[in-house]
Design goal:
It is a single chain. By secondary structure, the chain is an all-alpha fold. The chain has a domain of 145 residues: Ferritin, core subunit, four-helix bundle (Ferritin).
Length: 209
């Protein structure tokens, strides 16, 4: 009988201790003194910081391409109005058409990548535009086509680099898709420039008789 009473007493004490511990823990949680379980940060991607510089290079390419495309459209509009050569006028119209299409694609891509595009020409391109705007006829034709050759040489090189080494898959794919059109522009610009320059006259020969 005494054993039963002792066992009952021990159970009662244990229950009291358990209730006290639960009450104490609840009080700590309510007062904010209990520390929450530690959370691990080991699951965060390790390459987050490394990805930013890579995308920065692609973003810079997108912005440069946007400025260049905008310039091609505005200079093309000048060409349609100021050129005297039918070949130059036709080329200028193609610049307006092809680069307007590429610019629209680039705007959509930039929106997906949260890249803010420029809305106006930079100082370099504006200076070229202002210079050409003062020219008419043959003078315009010569200056415009010289600038088109220079621009497309630079554009083709930049798009080749991005298509080969770009880090963002979508930007890289757009560069690769647009590159063949730019290469066509490059060849056409060089052909027209050479045609405007005229063929060298054949050397005169003297009659031996």
């Amino acid at each position: 009988m005494k054993s039963c009473l002792k066992a009952a007493a021990l159970l009662s004490v244990a229950a009291s201790v358990g209730i006290a511990s639960t009450t104490l823990l609840g009080s700590e949680l309510q007062s904010g003194t209990a520390k929450p379980p530690a959370t691990s940060t080991a699951q965060q991607p390790a390459d987050t910081k490394a990805a930013k510089p890579a995308m920065a290079a692609d973003s810079a390419f997108v912005r440069e391409a946007a400025i260049g495309g905008m310039a091609e459209v505005e200079l093309g509009q000048l060409g349609v109005k100021n050129a005297s050569s039918a070949d130059v006028k036709q080329f200028a119209q193609r610049m307006v058409d092809d680069h307007s299409k590429a610019n629209d694609e680039l705007k959509s891509l930039a929106s997906q990548k949260n890249v803010t595009l420029p809305t106006a020409l930079d100082a370099k391109h504006k200076a070229v535009h202002d210079k050409l705007a003062k020219l008419q006829g043959a003078a315009f034709d010569s200056a415009y086509m010289a600038d088109m050759v220079k621009d497309h040489d630079a554009d083709v090189a930049a798009f080749q680099r991005e298509a080969k080494s770009g880090k963002d898959a979508d930007v890289k794919a757009w560069a690769a898709k647009t590159l063949p059109t730019l290469q066509e522009h490059q060849k056409q610009a060089k052909d027209i420039k050479a045609k405007l320059g005229g063929a060298k006259p054949a050397a005169k020969t003297t009659d031996s008789k």
